[in-house]
Amino acid sequence: MTLTTYQDLRAKADAVWARAAEPQRTLIKVGVATCSRVVGAEETLEALRRAVAARGLEADVMVTGCLGLCYAEPLVEVRRPGTPAVLYQRVTADKVAALLDESVAGDGIAHGMALAVVGDGALGGVPALDSLEFMRGQVRRLMANCGVTDPGSIDHYIARAGYEGLTRALRMKPVDVIQEVKDSGLWGRGGAAFSTGLKWEFLHNAKRKPRYLICNADEGDPGSFVNRNLMESDPHLLIEGMIIGGFATDSDVGYIYIRDEYPVPVERMQRAVEQAREKGLLGEGILASNFNFELEVVRGAGSYVCGDETGLLSSLEDRRGMPKIKPPFPAQAGVFAMPSNINNVETYTNVPLILRNGAQWWAAMGSEKHKGTKMFSLSGQVQRVGILEVPLGTPTSDVVMRMAGGPPEGRKLKGIQPGGPLSGVIPASDGDIPLEPDPYKERGVLMGSGGLVILDDSNCIVDLCIYFEWFAEDESCGRCTTCFAGTRRALEILRRISSGRGRMADLELIKLLGKIAQNANCFHGQGAPTAVASMFRFFEEELLEHVQRKRCPAKVCRGLVRYEVVHRSERLPAAEAICPTNAVVRDNGGYRIDQAKCVKCDACREQAPYAISVVDEFALT
Amino acid sequence: MFSQASHNSRLTPVEPAAGSTEVIARVSELIADLRPDNVDLLAAFHRIQHEFGYVPREAVPLLAGKFQTTPAIIFGTIDFYSEVRTTPPAETTVEWCSGPACLLKGSLNIRRALEAILECEMNRTSADERFGLRLVQCDGTCHLAPLVRHEGRYLGPLTVSEAIDWARGLVGGGEVRGQRSEVREEASDVGAPQKTAGTQ
Fold first, then answer.
1. Three-state DSSP class for A102?
2. For B142-169, what is each residue's pLDDT tens digit?
3. Is A332 touching B (CB cutoff 8 A)?
4. What is the ipTM of this complex?
5. pLDDT score recorded for residue B14
6. Contact between chains at A464 and B100 (C-beta distance less than 8 A)
7. Under a CB-based contact definition with an 8 Å cutoff, are residues B73 and B64 in contact?
8. Which of B121, B189, B196 to mutate to test the interface with A (most CBs of A within 10 A)?
9. Residue A63 and which of A75, A111, A335, A566 are 20 to 30 A apart at CA?
């Protein structure tokens, strides 16, 4: 057993980090994370390494995580000694040569690709990173290391005050650590918004051993990807948070349950756990204390309800991941019927910051009632898809319209789905409410885990509700009839409405199903009707248009529209060629759509937007 | 302990199913170091699927023996997880993202077109078993919405026309074109073609 103290670790780490923070020669950082890998970051990295070697450049190439600017990936930062670093956007492998040519020649900036200057002030016409709309207003605490350090280097993390919070915690009594977390006002970031300190206290007061501390990294809400970024860009922040949690609750083993769809976080977390073990931060006698804690990464296998607290427990117990009936609560009988505690990734990652800087510092940010910062992912109809971190209570519109740039040119904001398919939708008119749980709750909506999906006026609310209901039905575990059958009936009704066979009585039926669903055991069933409830509350006119006039105003619902050739155009042969079902047919020297064959895929209208039009199938007045 | 008690009551000897002895030997090898009540079953699925591309039925009784439970419980668990397959994957599988960002940007149109061209319904294999269409969940690569994935490559943001061109290339076995085909520049009867949703 090695007894390492924090000072030993820090001294070595500082030396390693200095090479990246104040490099003696040019340092090229490539952001490699899920969002950038899919647009070729690994090829960029490889090309850079090869080019640097081939040209014999005095430069080092380093991997870093994701800054959150998914829309601009792959991002490459060039840091030359003595000048501010410049961040370049969309640097695919084919642009590497040009980047290297230009960033060493002239004023040292490849202007065509330059996005921002990392540091204070603009440079040569390139704006400062903090002045970008996407970055202005962000408070990056959890994301302080994202896109800055190498996620594969524990030394980078330690040198930036990593594991300092743990060192402080280990010198305190576990109850005092819990008190500090309580004082901060931190609540569960997974969606339930329950006090973390209180939850830890429940486990602390449990009578039996062993105890388990579990991290819910099954970020199943489609459109949410904040946990993914934390795990792949700064994995040690989560590990430190879990060790502190383990110490405070006197736990023995921790599990990090990561969804199957996240291979990169699985790999990086596993590696980080090994590194922490090697450094004496996990295992027996952590940092020369008498606290023992083990951590294991578990990879899920594709199930949304495993993101439910007790569903995850069942999954860990080698069974179907079906949510359990509470009580008993996990603190009494969790995984393997032993006392357990489950928190979200973002919850645990806040803990090192609280312990490092104190509850007071942590709580200085945020709104009156809700303290701290929250990460949000933005997707759907926005110009800048990405991940950002803002103080709780920031106006929703500031994030959606200003930072993310709002809907594409010429489109109008229609609504915002704040956090997962069970969270509901707020209308554009409520877009200025603060991003914190209460104002959303007042509107019957949940703020959830922070995956903001933005709708614009080209989207149909009925179509979206069909998606949510389908998702709820597809992922239902099958325990409660009110859930698995209720969602199926609701889905049938919605599909009927979208196909033009909706009746006014259906509206009452689906409302009734929503009420019945409240009898489901877990939140999956209870939350399934939320989106439909939002539709009744905020988009009733559009819904009635579907039911009474058999018309889809956004022209999305397949059963309510058809494609027609309305003009002549030289583009029609292209439309004929693209059609996957040969439904664009020649007829009397012109063209028409064979409605029996048409699958309404919109390809022909893409080819000939003037000649082919989407018209209402039923024009009831 | 609750879990122990329930396991003991289910301890019935299990005969290995008839099947390939090779598969049985390999599966046994893969799961040799795993234990019950140690959060190992998911790892077992991943190992077996990594080796075979799916979980063969020969594995079920072996897993039941290993994890001290019944084949029914094991099969129920396999069946529960959407990423654990019980049949071999098609020669070529196209993965279609079902997420909300893709949906709002017109992914259903792409789905209809792909189903028509690959002659295969979602989550099924084509009659000649060459192509499979698989519905996948959002992994947060929404800057590429709407997207499809093929052999680990992400294609997006796609217009329906681009998706069709690409899928035809796949069926024809010819050159498979990348993300942006030239359809966008060519189509110009009244200005640029309108995408179902705007681009950035």
1. helix
2. 999 999 999 999 999 999 999 999 999 9
3. no
4. 0.94
5. 57
6. yes
7. yes
8. B189
9. A111
